[in-house]
Amino acid sequence: MENINLFVLLANWLRQWLEGVGASPDVIEVVMDVFGTVGALVFILLNALILVLLERKAAAFFQQRYGPNRWGPKGVFQTIFDSLKLLSKEDIIPKAVDKWVFKIAAYLIFIPAILVFAVIPFGEGMIISDLNIGIFYFVAVASTATLAFLMAGWGSNNKYSLIGGMRSVAQMVSYEIPLVFSLVGVVMLTGSMKMSAIVAAQTKVWFILPQFLAFLVYFIAGHAELNRGPFDMPEGEQEIVAGPYTEYSGMRWALFFLAEYANLVAVCSIATTMFLGGWNPIPGLGFLPIPTYVWFVLKVYFMIMLFMWTRWTFPRVRIDHLMHFGWKVLIPVSLVNILVTGIGIKIYQWMGW
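RESULT FIELD:
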């Protein structure tokens, strides 16, 4: 039985209605992109509310304590009241900061977190813009987040913030290299950078099997890119208070926090698309009447739980150990994976399979 995708039906109805009222093709595409962007933004905000509570509950479980348990049943309303608290807090701007740089950084950090969702396929036919260079677009846009961290550190006019900002830039630039290299093997197997083509190529076999080494590299590098433990040196509270966020308060601080969870969902969405079959069902369970977007979300949350498990299990590493591991281990390993993948493809072609 074919699953009915309500979101695709709604999009098709809107497109047909616009055509019926005589809207031009360009206007139709703009309207569809706007609705897709609003949908992605709602998805980000809802996930942020859920993930803040989920992470606090997960941290409490790993540390054998209760976690949020006051507001609502089992503390389910805690995130809502935290959001209201942040909205009501005073926006304090220190006198000595570079005001324009300080203010813009808080908004700039959230822009790449939204833009990357334009090429993420949430389900069959559920992608805002299915670019031919989809994965390249994701990497290019995501890399601009380093600028916001540097601006926040420099604009705060605070030595702790500056050190945290520089740490963040060094860490993210260093680990972008193995992260990108880990995706090259998948592109080589697929022969395309188009997200829908990559998902379609995993109908029978998910790429996590032939590219398990690349998946491990991506998973480790993803922690560094997200500045999450055990690679959260940019905000190492024992050393530099809160790093680039030290001077921020209220909703400006909340935007950094929101961007972190938006980026977490984006990184896990790319892992799902590239290695876990995207919206394809688990092999052997395709007969279940489950929409493709449900399969996608389940896989994304599986990856999110792995990230949370790692964060609350391992202690923070030293910054020099982090840099050495990235340059001396992950980059060589990712290059070896590319070499082995290329040799495997040539052998496959030579054997005529």
